Amino acid sequence: MRISRFLISATILLSISSCSKTLLRPIPIINSLLLKTATTHREPSLGNDLLVTLANKQGKEIIELINIRNGKKIALPGANKSDAQVISISVNSDGERMALIRQRGSKTELLIYRRRSGTIQKLELIPQGVPKQVSIDAEGRVLAVQVSRNGRWDIDLIQVKS
Fold first, then answer.
1. Measured distance CA(86)–CA(97) in Å, rounded
2. More confident residue, 84 or 11
3. Cα dist from 12 to 2, 15, 16, 17, 56, whole Å
4. Which of 23, 82, 96, 152 measures 20 to 30 Å from 120, CA to CA?
5. Which pTM was predicted?
6. Number of other CB atoms surrounding residue 121 within 10 Å
């Protein structure tokens, strides 16, 4: 009885995994666009119809937002600063808010970028620490931030005010 249940479970699992292999395919339009727009891309984050990445263009990484339905890039006024390097980025579901961590000089900053207004809001970590990676929720209201404090890694959940 146990062996037959095991075989049935294994057969179902193999069927599911073999089916999933056929479903995992690159999206040629977006992938070819990514290859054309930059040398490399990293830190992908998906909203509903949007992809945000850090794109390396001529040795400088910039934030790039792409509509994955039509393949068009979306302008991000005020998001890319020539004196800063973005370390981590995340976009909410409608692409209105992005959470980012950037390095400016000797400072590492946690920020919220609001696309509609083109504004950046700096967020303070309490207690202080050095942010390393960020993720924003679908509604753009809560951040999960990986923070280094006193030689250990912490995760802070931060509520973003409107």
1. 16
2. 84
3. 15, 5, 6, 9, 43
4. 152
5. 0.77
6. 12
